[in-house]
Specification:
single chain; Leucine-rich Repeat Variant; 3 domains; two-stranded antiparallel ribbon; 4 strands; about 70% helix; SYO1-like; HEAT3 protein; Armadillo; unfolded protein binding
Length: about 675
C-alpha cells in the first residue's frame, strides 16, 4: 500500500451477467414459446427451420427468456443446424447462437462448450473458409438480391467464436488445437470488400491472442503479412480506423514473434495508428454525422415523393392507352429508387460508434503496453543482464499485482515513437468531459443515446491511461514540473467543476486513480501541489462514501500523500489534525480491511516525521488510539482474512500489521506517550 497501482485491461465479455433465475413449478409464456420453436427446428421445411432460428435469435436477446431455452438444450438443438444443407438456416442458427453467447454470459458460454458447440462451429468455419473464393465468384441469390451467404454466415460464426473464446479456456484450447487461426485469417483477406467481416475477425483475433502463448507459433511470416497489410490499409472511414486499431492490438499481443530488430518500427506503426484514432474529435464527429443523417433522411423523403408522383403520372398514361404494355410498378420503383445509391440505414451512427470503440480500444492497449504480468525467472535474468537494467529498475515497481513497464524500458527508439506520436498529449485531451452539444444531440435522439455511455467510457479509459503513464514515465518526459502542476489543475477541475462532486463510480475510480498517481509523482520530486487541503478533504469525504472499494482506497491514499507533503511544511498542524482524524476514523470504522489497511498506511506516511506532525499527533492522541486499535485490527485479520481476500491482499495487510507495531514503537521512542 502507499502507491497507486496500474490497471491492466483484459477484454471482457460483452454481457457478463448470468441468466435470470428460473421459476419453480411454473410454465410461463417463455417456456411455451421455447418448446414450440425448438420443435420447429426439426421440421423438414428449410423455411420453417429458418423462421424458427430467426425467432429464437430475437427472443434470446431478452435475458429473462434464456433459462427457458437452456433448460431445453437449445445448444444441442441449434448446433447441428450450423451444418444444415440450407445456407439460410446456417446463418440464422449461427445468429441465434451468437445472441445466446452474447446475452447469456459466462455460465451460458460454459454450457455451450460443455454441450460441444465447438465441433460444428469449427467445421462450419473451415468449410466457409474453403468455399470463400468460389462463393466470391458466384454469390448465392437471395430473394432477388446478390447476397454473399458464405461471408454472412462466416460473420455470425466468427462473432460466436469470439464470444465463446473470451469466456471459456476450453474453447481457446480447441481453437489452438484445431488450427482455426488459418481459417480465421483467410476471412481477413476480404477486408477490402467486407470491412464488417474484417472487424469481426479482428475482434476475435485480439481476444484469442491475449495471454495465449500456445498460439504464437502459428503466426508465421504469411500470417503476419496478412495483419501488416490490413494495418497499413489507407482507407479513412471510422470502420477502417477501428479495424486498424484492433489489428494493432493483435500485433501487440503477438509481439514476442517479432524479431528484436523490427520491434521498434512495429511499435512505432502501432502507436501511429493509435495516434490517428485519438486525434479525431469524437464530439465534433457526432455533430457532423448527425447533420449528415438529417440531410440523408431529408433527401430520401424528397426522392420518395418524386417517385410517387412519377408513379401517378405513369398510371394515368397507362389508363389512357389500353394497348400499351403495363410496366410492373415494383420494378419501376426499384430502378428509380435513389435510396439504393445512398449509404445503408444508420451508417452515420455506425461510423461514430466505430470511432468511439477504436478510441476506447487504443487507450486500453496503451495501458497494457505500460503494464505487463510478473516476469518469469528467465525474464528477470535477461532484464538484469541487459544494458538497460538500471533504467528498468528506476521506472518500474513490483507490488503484488504486477510489474509496471515504461515504454522507456523497451528502447530509445520506441520511447521516441511514443512521444513523437504525441500520445500523452492526445490522451490528456480525451480526459476532458464530452462535448456538451454532442451530448445534447445524443440525449434527444433515442438511437444515438447509447453513445453517451461510450463517450464516458473513453474519458474513463483516458484517465486510467494517464495514470499508467504517470507511474512509469520520467518527469522530464511528462513535460517537467510546470506540466504536472497544470495537470493537477486539470484533474481538480474535472472533480470540482460542478456544484456537486461526481457520483459516477467508473469516473470516480478513474479520476482518483489518476490524481493519486500524479500526486505521488509530484511528491517524489518535491513539486508543490496545487490542490487546497479543503478540496482534498471534500474529495475524500465524498469518495469514502462510494460503494467502490478502489475509490475508497484511492481517496485515502491521496490524503496520505498530501498529508506527508504538508508535514514537511510550516504551520500545518491544524490541517494535519483534520487529516489524522479522518484517517483514524476510516481505519477504525471501514468495513473493508483493504481500505482500513490503506488508512493505516497513510497515517504512517503523514505522521512519520516533522515537528508539525508531532504536534498534530499529540493533539489527536494518535499513539494511544493506535495502541488501543492494534489488537482489534489483528482480530479482524484473523476472522475476516481467510476466504474474503486474495493472497496478495493478505500479504499487504500482514505488512500493514507489522508496520503498525513498528510505528507504535517508533512513536513511543519519541517520548510522546501522554503522562
Amino acid at each position: 500500500m502507499g502507491k497507486s497501482r496500474a490497471r491492466r485491461f483484459r477484454r471482457a465479455p460483452r454481457a457478463p451477467a448470468g441468466p435470470a433465475p428460473q421459476r419453480d413449478g411454473e410454465r410461463g409464456p417463455e417456456e411455451e414459446a421455447a418448446a414450440e420453436l425448438l420443435e420447429k427446428l426439426q421440421h423438414p421445411s428449410a423455411e420453417v427451420r429458418e423462421y424458427a432460428c430467426a425467432s429464437i435469435s430475437k427472443l434470446l436477446q431478452q435475458k429473462h427468456v434464456i433459462p427457458a431455452f437452456v433448460q431445453r438444450d437449445v445448444v444441442r438443438c441449434l448446433g447441428p443446424l450450423l451444418m444444415d444443407h440450407s445456407l439460410a438456416v446456417r446463418e440464422t442458427a449461427a445468429g441465434a447462437l451468437r445472441n445466446l453467447s452474447a446475452c447469456g454470459g459466462f455460465d451460458v458460454c460454459d454450457d455451450m462448450v460443455t454441450n460441444d458447440i465447438m465441433t460444428p462451429l469449427v467445421a462450419l468455419l473451415k468449410e466457409c473458409s474453403t468455399g470463400l473464393d468460389a462463393n466470391q465468384l458466384s454469390p448465392k441469390k437471395c430473394r432477388g438480391t446478390n447476397k454473399n451467404y458464405i461471408e454472412d454466415i462466416a460473420n455470425e460464426a466468427i462473432n460466436l467464436l469470439w464470444n465463446i473464446c473470451e469466456c471459456n479456456n476450453t474453447a481457446l484450447y480447441i481453437f489452438n488445437k484445431e488450427g482455426c487461426l488459418e481459417a480465421v485469417l483467410h476471412y481477413m483477406k476480404r477486408f477490402a470488400t467486407n470491412v464488417d467481416l474484417a472487424i469481426s475477425v479482428a475482434n476475435c483475433l485480439q481476444a484469442v491472442t491475449e495471454d495465449n502463448p500456445d498460439l504464437l507459433s502459428s503466426f508465421n511470416a504469411s500470417a503476419q503479412q496478412i495483419l501488416e497489410t490490413v494495418m497499413m490499409c489507407p482507407e479513412s472511414t471510422m470502420k477502417h480506423i477501428l479495424l486498424r486499431t484492433l489489428i494493432a492490438g493483435t500485433i501487440w499481443n503477438i509481439k514476442d514473434t517479432i524479431p528484436p530488430g523490427s520491434l521498434g518500427s512495429t511499435v512505432n506503426a502501432i502507436l501511429k495508428i493509435f495516434s490517428e484514432s485519438l486525434a479525431i474529435d469524437a464530439g465534433e464527429t457526432i455533430i457532423r454525422m448527425n447533420e449528415a443523417e438529417k440531410n440523408r433522411l431529408k433527401l430520401a423523403v424528397e426522392a420518395e415523393t418524386e417517385e410517387n408522383m412519377s408513379d401517378t403520372a405513369e398510371n394515368c398514361v397507362l389508363s389512357e392507352d389500353e394497348n400499351m404494355e403495363e410496366t410492373p410498378k415494383g420494378k419501376l420503383r426499384r430502378e428509380n429508387d435513389v435510396s439504393d445509391l445512398l449509404p445503408s440505414d444508420k451508417w452515420e451512427l455506425k461510423e461514430v460508434t466505430a470511432l468511439l470503440t477504436a478510441q476506447q480500444t487504443a487507450l486500453e492497449i496503451i495501458v497494457n503496453m505500460c503494464c505487463s504480468e510478473d516476469p518469469s525467472d528467465d525474464e528477470w535474468e535477461e532484464l538484469s543482464s541487459s544494458d538497460e537494467s538500471d533504467l528498468f529498475m528506476e521506472n518500474s515497481y513490483n507490488e503484488g499485482s504486477g510489474l509496471l513497464l515504461s515504454p522507456l524500458c523497451l528502447s530509445d527508439e520506441v520511447n521516441s515513437a511514443f512521444l513523437n506520436n504525441l500520445i500523452p498529449k492526445k490522451i490528456l485531451e480525451k480526459t476532458a468531459f464530452p462535448n456538451s452539444v454532442a451530448l445534447d444531440i445524443c440525449m434527444h435522439n433515442p438511437s444515438w443515446k447509447p453513445l453517451i455511455k461510450k463517450l464516458n467510457a473513453v474519458q474513463c479509459r483516458a484517465l486510467t491511461c494517464l495514470q499508467s503513464i504517470l507511474l512509469v514515465s520520467d518527469v522530464d518526459c511528462l513535460g517537467g514540473a510546470s506540466a504536472l502542476q497544470s495537470l493537477a489543475q486539470h484533474l481538480s477541475q474535472l472533480i470540482f467543476s460542478k456544484t456537486e462532486l461526481p457520483t459516477d463510480t467508473e469516473f470516480l475510480e478513474a479520476v482518483t486513480s489518476a490524481l493519486r498517481a500524479l500526486l505521488q509523482t509530484m511528491a517524489s520530486k518535491n513539486i508543490s501541489q496545487c490542490m487546497t487541503p479543503e478540496q482534498l478533504l471534500a474529495l475524500c469525504e465524498a469518495g469514502i462514501q462510494s460503494s467502490n472499494t478502489s475509490v475508497r482506497v484511492n481517496v485515502v491514499g491521496i490524503l496520505g500523500i498530501s498529508g506527508s507533503v504538508l508535514a514537511k511544511g510550516q504551520d500545518t498542524a491544524e490541517t494535519l489534525k483534520m487529516i489524522g482524524k479522518f484517517l483514524l476514523e476510516v481505519a477504525m470504522k471501514e468495513s473493508s480491511l483493504v481500505v482500513a489497511g490503506e488508512a493505516l498506511d497513510a497515517l504512517f506516511d503523514v505522521f512519520a516525521d516533522g515537528k508539525e506532525a508531532e504536534k498534530a499527533a499529540l493533539q489527536i492522541k494518535l499513539l494511544p488510539t493506535l495502541k488501543e486499535f492494534q489488537p482489534v485490527f489483528r482480530m479482524r485479520m484473523r476472522k475476516e482474512g481467510k476466504g474474503q481476500y486474495s493472497t496478495d491482499q493478505l500479504c499487504v495487510l500482514d505488512n500493514v500489521k507489522m508496520n503498525l507495531r513498528r510505528f507504535i514503537a517508533y512513536q513511543e521512542t519519541l517520548g510522546k506517550t501522554p503522562t
